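Budget justification note: compute hours in this period were largely spent on complex prediction jobs such as the one shown. Inputs:
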Amino acid sequence: MSLRNIGIVYRKELMDSLRDRRTLISMVVVPILIMPLLTIGLGVLAVDIAGKAKQQIPEVMILGGADSPQLMAQLTALKDIEIVPSRPDYADEISNKQIRAAVEIPPGFDAAVQSGQPVTVKIDNYQGDLNSGFATDTLRKALRDYRDATVSRRLESRGLPVTLITPFDIKDQNVAPPEKVTGAEIGGLIPYIVILLCMTGAMYPAIDLTAGEKERGTMETILSSPVSRLHLVLGKFLMVLTASLATAALAVTSMGVSFGIGRRMLMSMASGSDSGAMQLTITFKSVLAVFGMVVPLAVLFSAALLAISLHAKSYKEAQSYISPLIPIIIIPAVVSLLPGVELNAHLALIPVLNTSLVSKEIITGTYHWKLIVLIFASSCAYAAIALGIAVKLFQREDVLFRT
Amino acid sequence: MADSPLISVRDLTKTFRSFQRREGLWGGIVNLVLREYREVHAVERIGFSIERGEMVGYIGPNGAGKSTTIKMLTGILVPSGGEIVSNGFVPWRQRTNYVRTIGVVFGQRTQLWWDIAVIESLKLLRRIYDVSERDFAERMETFDEILGIRDYLNTPVRKLSLGERMRCDLAAALLHNPPLLFLDEPTIGLDVVAKDHIRRFLRAINQRYQTTILLTTHDLDDIEELCRRIMIIDHGQLLYNGPLAMLKQKLLRTKQVKFALRDQTQLPGLSALQRDGLKLERVDGLTYRILFDRSRISTADLVRQILGLAEVHDLLIEDEPIEEIIKRIYAGEALEKASV
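Corresponding output:
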């Protein structure tokens, strides 16, 4: 094995690729742009949508209540909702988002409360709709306050303390470190993007170095040089791997930078509101670890893409072979995003899914060393198989000169 | 070794498996499940030898097997049968060592890298072929002298004209000073001036370095100007292998007399010729030509007859163009498989 010859081929391919605009775009521009767009763009959008929904005053209908002036007074005094005249098709109007909620007050409500009889107020809403949720929250809070006030009054009139009915208070508080919160919320998304970019970064060079070379007619000439086919395929493979890793590295770097900026931006945007959950914290160490886990996957992608596109006669043909691969990569990555999919020894053997899952854990700061070793080893094994296939294919005349 | 041929080929065969497609929509569906293959003999039991310092033309129609032969001779393809010994090597077995002693130019493809400057490609090739800095500089000097490539060494290949690119490709192929050069359609698509340039260069290196050259071409001017020997291949079989002059002698049956009449009134007098089975064709204006079979009428007799029948102010006797002869061979005219 001559490292020198592999080096020559690698250098040639690198020089050629750096002049190819498609490779440069997929290798440099896409990863640099996609991360800030994703983190800052989506973050801003999410904060913005939530803010707007809160600012909008939801329209609410009150059904009945003519004989209950006390409750009506409580509801009409609410500032966060706008009460509209009642109509019989309120259910449809809620479903069609014309109004956000409706309160059904049973006849004789005030009187029933006075006399201590059980009575129910219903809030009609649209489950899952953000604005309906806000209206419901406001109504529920108003009704609860009214109920609490009623209880307090009754206790007072009987000379009993308020603590009789509320012996203690409940408060929830997050104790997980900020990176774990970030990890749980968006942790799966980051490895997913890195894996996808690893693939797209390798795609164009892999096609260009095989099918592209066939199309330009330079395959025969390179094959007639004293570089052996093994050196040729290894040189080409190293170039594709470089592109893949460079794309991933740029994505990771740009991710780090945009999180830094994004965090500050979102904090200032969300300040004042209760958006404490919008904390974005990722440590440098975890990013580096994710990158380390992605390396064997990049080897697998590079070798597999090289082997597949070598079968094609033209750039276009290679693209049509490779496009179906994208969902194959995306599906395991998406599965890892599903709630409840936890890493175990079986899943650690499924390529892409394993790396995606373990990276999600790493982002949250959890290191399952046994599984990490297993995943790294299995990914390396898959990568070696793919590279072996690519090398074998380069020896085959019927693949190189397919007619 | 000195008297053994530089290239010796025996019973060389290359068989490809070609997928047989069925017709129509139903055929297309069947194709997906049942695949039928047909064996195609691209080259079938051909044999020849080439001596050191020879320039040999290898011709044949499209798909005849020329490029397949060249690919086997350069070690890119492995033959299905037969033997090749070239420059003391078996090309496909000792490929990396063997290709250091040969140069290859594929006319329709380039070994220079598309997006990078010519000089970068040449420098990379220098490293691939282990050419010393000194030899490299010296050869670049020579190439510039004969090919005039200095002006576009820093231009990316994609921006070169075909003629310029071909000159650079020749320089690249000869960078390691190989004793043997294979050219696959070196003048394809070039204009007259560029063709002439390439031919002069090939003659020069053949004379200066005794470089042995095997070239395939469609342009018979290449052959006439460069090669004394030609090999004709069709349907994978060698139809002719011998001197160009002998091919002409053997197959040159017809000649043509081209003449210009003094004026139109001379034309009716020539009708007597047509009675003898000769066919008068008008070329343009007052110029006419007669194609004739040398075995049936001698050139002198015909000229005498023409001059007796009409007033002619110019007359030219020509051999049948070589293209016509080759066309007849391709069309299946019997030709003994002569080897000289």
